Amino acid sequence: MFVEFWEVGSTASAPLPMTVDDISFHLAVDWVPSLPPADGTAFMGWPPFLIENLPSYSNTTFLALRDRAARSDRQWKGVLSWMLGVAGARQFLRRDGYTWVAPLSAFYPTVVRTVDVQAWPPQFPQTKLVTDRNRTSRSRLRPDYIALRPVPGAQSAGEYEWGVAEAKGVAAPLSGKTAYPVDWYNQARNVTVTVNGAKVTIPRHMVIATRVNPNAVNAQTRRLQIRAWNRKEELNGLEHFVIGPVVWRRQHTFDWAGKRVCQREQYHIVHIARFEPRMSDAV
Amino acid sequence: MRFEMQVVDRFRWWPVEELARASERLTPLALAEILARYLTQGPPLEPPEVEVLVD
User: Fold this and answer.
1) Is B21 a member of any domain?
2) Which range of residues forms the domain containing residue A161?
3) Model pLDDT for residues A122-154, shown as the tens digit of each residue
4) Which of A71, A159, A228, A255: CA 20 to 30 A from A47?
5) Considering the domain boundaries, does residue B35 fall inside one?
6) Which of A96-100, A151-155, A189-193, A206-210 has the lowest mean pLDDT?
7) Mutating which of B12, B14, B51 best tests the A interface, going by the most A Cβ atoms within 10 A?
8) Is residue A249 one of the residues assigned to a domain?
């Protein structure tokens, strides 16, 4: 079983393996992280009743909401969208190698709490982790999750990197959504992370949306979709800033690497203190 | 981003008044006007029209 999936920066979808048991597992881990993984499907037993396997035209079986999901009240559709948004985000994070994921809401203001560390990587020392809002952010909301993974392609074992993620459940199709709303962008960046007293750079501020559309008449339109965004600030080294209003939009068609490319651009104002720009490429 | 070196020669800060006299091609082409308008009038009240540029 699969869901239709758009990788970060990709305009074409590819099937992402995902089952109803994965959904049960992710929700159980999110709600009661100390629960043994084998109990996840019993604890969260509803997914098979509302989600079915749907063969598509391409002979790939996709997960889709059953039509009975349309006949629940609006408040429960909201709950369904939120839960599947959580499951979709966690499926993406697991696929991207994040071994430890914790809800940021677990970190209360001025309170020290122990969070579940069953999945904490044994190579990484146990840590005093402090998260706070980004003081320069205009967003009132914070991202949903903080996560830790081994650095992909690291030269030596024991190199890890942090990531933060915001999970969204949306009804609209994700197929044409190459850009994501500024509010989501700002929310994903409204966090600072301090590890053992030292502020750390977060290389990835991900937003992961899951399309949950129980009201669609066509079963194909009730298919689950997942799309991820992570806008990297690789060109200039900016790390903490608030993206401002759009002041210009254009559609630019040009040749690039032997191809004719048409891209849509938005130009935002960003207020920042003067800084020394740097290239991320080795010169 | 491995392509960065192919398209970026260097970084520098530009005073707004120098942008208006720049001989380099700016992106977007009307950058100096856009910034001047933002500084005097603030952000647009409505989403700006889409400029269509074909090279």
Assistant:
1) yes
2) 2-236
3) 878 778 888 888 887 878 889 999 999 988 877
4) A228
5) yes
6) A151-155
7) B51
8) no
ipTM value for the complex? 0.90
Q: How many domains does chain A fold into?
A: 1
Do the Cβ atoms of B4 and A252 come within 8 Å? no
Interface of A with B in 25-64 (CB under 8 A): none
Task: Mention every residue, 6+ apart, whose C-beta is less than 8 A from residue A69.
Answer: A50, A77, A80, A214, A222
The verdict on residue B53 lying in a domain is no
Which residues span the domain enclosing B31?
14-41
In a domain, A27, yes or no: yes
Domain count, chain B: 1
Q: Work out the minimum CA distance from A90 to partner chain B, whole angstroms.
A: 26
Q: What is the C-alpha separation between B24 and A97, in angstroms, rounded?
A: 44
Q: What is the pTM of this model?
A: 0.70
Handedness of CA A170, A172, A176, A177 (dihedral sign): negative
Residue B37 lies in a domain: yes
pLDDT, averaged across chain A: 86
| Alpha carbon A82 to chain centroid, angstroms | 13
Contact A94, A15 (CB under 8 A): no
